[in-house]
Design a protein that fits this description.
Elements (H helix, E strand, L loop, with lengths): L1 E2 L12 E6 L8 E7 L9 H9 L4 H4 L5 E3 L4 H16 L4 H17 L4 H16 L5 H16 L6 H4 L3 H14 L3 H13 L8 H13 L3 H13 L7 H12 L4 H13 L7 H12 L4 H14 L1
Antiparallel strand pairs: 1-4, 2-3, 2-4
Length: 306
């Protein structure tokens, strides 16, 4: 088993090669392609060619490759080799490797590679190890992954890992991910608190707080929902100018609901100078993307002008 950052050495025909995008993990990266080397003369070029076929970005400026090769006779053995390599780094307390190993195990459990129940247990174990170690983005990602596992995994094969105190553990890890700075976790927590779902107590002020945390990271849907809070005065003092500002930021990410909401405020001149032409244009834009409230509003506008 050999690996080298840029040049493949001692690779033989019949070896398998994994191509890794290192923009996602500092140490390991994300596997993006597996190829078998059929002819030895292709070994020095296959990682460049394969990457170019899968990516439209320039190789040198965006991607750092870590080729990982094995003399495995089949893909399953190759996966096992790669997984053991990652686990060796994880067990040396490399946080990035621990997270990556958890992600691999979780993915493989659903693809039926090896013993799926064991793989799911290992995914849960390593996510928990990462979650409890710190406050970085990697720790937050592990906490969020655990929250989603408790929320979504209902396969009876995995009940032993998730059925006990499912709702309580979901709440714990979602809150933990939000506190660790995971913007999607912050948004989802705000949403569940706003509507009193998934066992969270309804609280508009707390919802605003967590929407604000996610909005501070420019999470598009949180920007829209925070604008809605300011427009309606729920959990915060009503402020149409603030609502417009948040709708504009969300609309800049092409969130159709925000485009519609912004159009409404332009039509009424709330928080912004009244501009019926612009308001109607925004509503038409949202309606053209099959957003039902915008379609209904546009129908009323057309009826009023007839």
């Amino acid at each position: 088993m050999q690996r080298n950052r840029h040049i493949l050495q001692n690779i033989q025909a019949g070896d398998f090669l994994i191509l890794i995008d290192k923009t996602k993990h500092k140490t390991l990266g994300e596997p993006i392609q597996i190829q078998k080397i059929e002819q030895l003369e292709h070994a020095q070029q296959i990682h460049y060619v394969g990457l170019y076929q899968m990516r439209t970005v320039e190789f040198c400026s965006h991607i750092d490759l870590l080729p990982f090769a094995s003399t495995a006779s089949d893909l399953k053995t190759f996966y096992d080799d790669y997984r053991q390599y990652v686990r060796s780094l994880a067990d040396a307390n490399d946080v990035s490797a621990m997270l990556h190993f958890a992600e691999l195990s979780y993915t493989w459990a659903f693809h039926g590679i090896g013993k799926t129940d064991t793989a799911m247990g290992e995914a849960k174990q390593y996510y928990e190890l990462v979650s409890e170690q710190g406050q970085t983005a990697e720790h937050a990602q592990a906490s969020y992954a655990l929250a989603q596992m408790y929320l979504r995994i209902i396969n009876p094969d995995y009940d032993a890992y998730f059925k006990l105190n499912r709702e309580g553990n979901f709440q714990y890890y979602l809150l933990r991910s939000a506190e660790q700075g995971h913007c999607i976790g912050q948004y989802q927590l705000a949403y569940y608190i706003e509507y009193g779902e998934k066992g969270f107590q309804q609280d508009d002020e707390k919802a605003v707080y967590w929407y604000q945390q996610a909005a501070n990271q420019d999470y598009p849907q949180a920007l829209n929902n925070l604008g809605d809070k300011y427009e309606r005065g729920k959990g915060v003092k009503r402020d149409y100018a603030q609502a417009v500002a948040y709708y504009q930021r969300s609309a800049a990410y092409d969130i159709v609901e925000a485009i519609y909401n912004l159009g409404r405020l332009y039509l009424r001149g709330l928080g912004v100078e009244k501009d019926e032409v612009k308001g109607r244009s925004l509503i038409m834009q949202a309606a053209s993307r099959y957003y039902k409230p915008a379609q209904r509003k546009l129908a009323k506008l057309i009826e009023q002008n007839e």
